[in-house]
């Protein structure tokens, strides 16, 4: 059975949609089955007749002579497109081909957790062929970078600058998650200038209901300019051995 051509498209999606999944509607120009004749190429209400070129075989044998001898090859009949039958009256929409190139609106389901560069295969959504099966459509996903978050497998990563006083004493901060919810995160006193804080279950959906983690990279933010009063406090801390 003949098979239509596979086609591919590129689709750019926001970071959030790639994480939680979405549905996108796109317009694709491709060869599709004729809506009028439903693929047989004949005018509605008329019949098909046996192709006189191939006598209904759908194939044509060609014999050629060369200095090496006689060669016989078999090719699909171009008169009936390899079907073996031709319409008595051709469909006015597709002119007897059974297929026609046109723009088609398609819905593409983006699964949750898809990564940049991954492909989505949509069986039999490629180009159609007369009396055969359509090829496949391949959608290559390009994920837009996010201003705050990035991904590492099933985990979400983000950077969070921490004031020096908060780094020494600890604090509680509010973070807007990728879903748009407010999350309160307790930061304990830091022991190093850079640390990582893990918030379980706030990462990327994986394996059904299970989710990865949110990993916050904490980095002490040093002031660019110190006032006289602050300098004195720092000098006092220095004198204490800090």
- State mean pLDDT (0 to 100 scale): 89
Radius of gyration: 33 Å
Percent of residues in beta strands: 35-45%
Fourth CATH level, the homologous superfamily of the largest domain: Urease metallochaperone UreE, N-terminal domain
Instruction: Please trace the helix and strand order, writing H or E for each element.
Output: EHEEEEEEEEEEHEEEEH
Straight-line N-to-C gap: 80 Å
Largest sheet: 4 strands, mixed
Please state the overall shape, judged from the principal axes of the Cα atoms: rod-shaped
- Helical element count? 3
CATH hierarchy: architecture of the largest domain? Sandwich
- What structural class should be given to the helix and strand makeup? mainly beta
Instruction: Identify the CATH class of the largest domain.
Output: Mainly Beta
Compute the number of strand runs: 15
Commentary on this structure:
By secondary structure, this protein is mainly beta. The protein has three domains: 104 residues, Urease metallochaperone UreE, N-terminal domain (HSP40/DNAj peptide-binding domain, Sandwich), CATH 2.60.260; 38 residues, no CATH class; 78 residues, HSP40/DNAj peptide-binding domain, CATH 2.60.260.20. 10% of the residues lie in helices and 42% in strands. It contains three helices and 15 strands. A four-stranded mixed β-sheet has the order 10-11-15-14. A hairpin with a 2-residue loop joins strand 10 and strand 11. The radius of gyration is 33 Å and the shape is rod-shaped. The model has no long low-confidence stretch (mean pLDDT 89).
């Amino acid at each position: 059975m003949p098979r239509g051509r596979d086609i591919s498209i590129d689709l750019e999606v926001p970071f959030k949609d790639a994480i939680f999944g979405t549905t996108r509607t796109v317009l694709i120009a491709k060869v599709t089955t004729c809506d009028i004749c439903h693929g047989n190429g004949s005018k509605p209400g008329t019949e098909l007749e046996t192709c006189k070129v191939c006598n209904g075989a759908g194939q044509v044998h060609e014999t050629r002579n060369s200095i090496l001898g006689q060669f016989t090859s078999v090719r699909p009949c171009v008169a009936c497109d390899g079907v073996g039958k031709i319409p008595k009256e051709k469909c006015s929409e597709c002119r007897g081909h059974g297929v026609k190139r046109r723009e088609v609106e398609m819905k593409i389901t983006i699964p949750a957790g898809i990564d940049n560069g991954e492909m989505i295969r949509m069986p039999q959504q490629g180009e159609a062929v007369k009396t055969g099966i359509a090829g496949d459509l391949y959608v290559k996903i390009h994920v837009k970078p996010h201003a705050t978050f990035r991904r590492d497998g099933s985990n979400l990563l983000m950077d969070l600058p921490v004031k020096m006083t908060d780094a020494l004493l600890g604090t509680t901060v509010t973070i807007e998650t990728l879903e748009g919810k407010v999350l309160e995160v307790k930061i304990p006193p830091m022991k190093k200038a850079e640390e990582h804080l893990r918030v379980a279950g706030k990462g990327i959906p994986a394996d059904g209901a299970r989710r990865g983690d949110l990993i916050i990279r904490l980095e002490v933010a040093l002031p660019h300019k110190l006032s006289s009063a602050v300098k004195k406090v720092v000098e006092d801390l220095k004198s204490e051995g800090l």
